[in-house]
Structure formats: structure tokens, C-alpha cells
């Protein structure tokens, strides 16, 4: 055995990693010992492996997943770009959460007026976008709406509605519609089709402010339905009353609607 080799305990102190971590990295194929005693199973490392071990420790301290660390060690180009994107996405989500919390601290729980309305069936252009979970809803909504707007770029303000399932279990799909007329030409963009958005009786309230704070107003709507003995039967609708391209976030108006009677004709 090479006289320069170090037992795992000494190597752990040198690289500021625990013995348990070194064993785990060995099992994952990230840092294989230079020598393993065939009789005792004791691991030994060469000093030249310290750089690799310290690199693994540094990347783990930055929340880089082990699979990505393997790519970094193998020299895969741009291996860390996805990690940076994920961290930026999480940071944006945290900022939105902080803004909503600040709103609650400043104004208390929302208490917007709720009333019953009757809506007719509408002819719409419809698209759906899958979401990987509740955290992915904003991205899926933006993607679906962008697809609709690409088919009607001149319609201003666009008459857009988002439909969000009350049950957020998998699989999760976000639906968005653009109100049209029966004589509108068929869409040529993939993923779009004409259909009818059912009418009926709805519990309705209006949210004023950024889209990412809509859940605060939805809380009021769902609470009202529960306290008044109403049972929502379909997805939550968000009717976007103002054009986000020209309206400041704190002035955006969104009508929230919960259907209280089964729709006559569900969308395909």
C-alpha cells in the first residue's frame, strides 16, 4: 500500500467532511478511495484526492445536488446553470411569499365582499398546460396565456380567464381561455381549440393587486362558500379584468369565481 495514503478519519479531518459523507460519496461513485483493505474494508485516500473532496464539500454547501456535482467533476459544460436557475426561481417564490406575508401583517386577513352572479356560456379559445405542482402554477399559467395571446395579438384588452383545480393533487393542469365569437377562424397554433366555457351560478369577488397575492382573496371566497353552505363544483376561475401589459401590479383587477351548480356542458 502507498505510504502516502491516509486512513479515512485523517482524510475526513483534512477535507472537513465526515466519515459518513465520505462513505456516501464512495457509494455514489463521486469519490472512490485510493485503496480499500480487502480484509478489513478500511478506506484509504491519497492526498491528491483532497481537491476533489473539497470541491464536493463546497458544492454541497451551495445546495448543488449530487447528480449535478458528478457532472461538474466530469467536466460537463454549463453543469451549474440549472442549479442557478432553480435557486433564482426559489428566490422569486420566497419574495412573493414575503410580499403576501407583509400584506397580511399590514392589512390583516382579506375580507372582500362576495356575491352570487349568473354567467352565460361563452365561446372561447382554450389551452391547457401541465404543472409539476402548486409551485409551478405561475409558470404554467404564464405559458398558457402566452399561447393564447400569440393567436390573438391585436385583441386589447384580451378577455382572458384562468381555470385552476380546487384539488391540487397530481396530475395538475392549468386551463386558460380567451373569449372569442362563434365566427372566429379556427386557431392554427398547436394546443389551442375552440370550445364553450359553461355558464351557471357563481360565488364572485374581486381581487385588487398583484396576481401572486390572489390566493389571499381566494381564501375569502372559499371561506364565504363554506360559511354559507355552498359547495363549489368546479375549478376556480380568475377573470383578468385589466391588461397586465398596461396596468401597474397594485392596480390589477381580477374577478374570482367559483361555480356552485354543475355546468350544463363541461369543456372537452
Briefly, what is this?
With about 270 residues, this protein is an alpha+beta fold. Helix content is about 35%, strand content about 25%. The protein folds into two domains: about 70 residues, Multidrug-efflux Transporter Regulator, Chain: A, Domain 2 (Orthogonal Bundle), CATH 1.10.1660; about 140 residues, Regulatory factor, effector binding domain (Multidrug-efflux Transporter 1 Regulator Bmrr, Chain A, Alpha-Beta Barrel).
Structure notes:
This protein is α+β, with helices and mostly antiparallel strands and 268 residues long. The chain folds into 2 domains: 68 residues, Orthogonal Bundle (Multidrug-efflux Transporter Regulator, Chain: A, Domain 2), CATH 1.10.1660.10; 145 residues, Multidrug-efflux Transporter 1 Regulator Bmrr, Chain A (Alpha-Beta Barrel), CATH 3.20.80. Helices cover 35% and strands 23% of the residues. It is built from 7 helices and 11 strands. The strands form 2 sheets. It has an 8-stranded antiparallel β-sheet. A hairpin with a 6-residue loop joins strand 2 and strand 3. The longest helix has 27 residues. It is elongated and about 85 Å long. The termini are far apart. The mean pLDDT is 89.
How does the SSE layout of this entry go?
Elements: E1 6-7, H1 8-15, H2 19-27, E2 35-36, E3 43-45, H3 50-61, H4 66-73, H5 81-107, E4 115-119, E5 122-131, H6 137-151, E6 160-164, E7 172-179, E8 193-197, E9 200-208, H7 214-227, E10 236-240, E11 253-259
Antiparallel strand pairs: 1-3, 2-3, 4-9, 5-7, 5-8, 6-7, 6-10, 9-11, 10-11
